[in-house]
Amino acid sequence: MIVPNFWNPRSRGERVEAPQTGRAVRFLTDDEFPPLHFAGPDGTPTGFSVELARAVCERLSITCTVQARRFDTLLDALDQRQGDVVAAAIPLTPALRAKFLATRPYFRWPARFAARADKGLPLPSVGALAERSVGVIAGSAHAAYLKAFFPKTVLKDFTDIAAAEGALKRGETDYLFADGLNLAVWVGGQEAESCCALIGGDYLENRYFGEGVGLVTRQEDAALSRALDDALQRVWDDGRYTELYLRFFPVSPF
Fold this sequence. Notes:
- By secondary structure, the protein is of the alpha/beta class.
- 31% of the residues lie in helices and 21% in strands.
- The protein folds into two domains: 9-108 and 211-248, Periplasmic binding protein-like II (D-Maltodextrin-Binding Protein, domain 2), CATH 3.40.190.10; 111-209, D-Maltodextrin-Binding Protein, domain 2, CATH 3.40.190.
- The strands form three sheets. It has a five-stranded mixed β-sheet.
- Helix 1 runs antiparallel to helix 9.
- The longest helix is centred in the last third of the chain and has 16 residues, at 222-237.
- This is ABC transporter arginine-binding protein 2.
């Protein structure tokens, strides 16, 4: 399985310690977006982002708490000092960076192709997809990307991902091009009934698919943000990131 590496090996420097405040660092998350963050069997928040945050706290030797809130309230709660760090799938954007600090991305949103597993279709390329039908969500960044870089592909628009996946499963389109995380969860799940698989590589152009997600803090907590960034690097270096990735992504989006 491919485990993504978002860290620059030449960026390693002296270890950055977390600022000592005398209290626990409060992480805020949402519990309805598996596999990144969701409620475990006992109701406790878990998921890739949450367990990565806990691993970061271990590396920094700091006490942390994790509290679940509704997704659309997370940044407001951070701004109102009801927590110290947001560990959730909030895209890193210029608007977010204008108000908050964020670590380097620890996860990105790859675009991927999926296809029927029994058709023997060629790997996606501009030539291979000429005149082929590809399902997309109407008006999405994925549709715009194909229009720009795969101009001879025949796009079939769908209103939502479930409809597009169903059409691929029934063989009504040759390929589906969409968010790799959604597709990975679908092809590895029961609903797909092993009909389909990811095919070809990942597409990570920022202009279309964004920068990804990082740990978000308030601007005045720059020392904490630097410590979190350094700890994420060390969690990658010691293999804990890979361990968590393999645990929460049985089918890799990459």
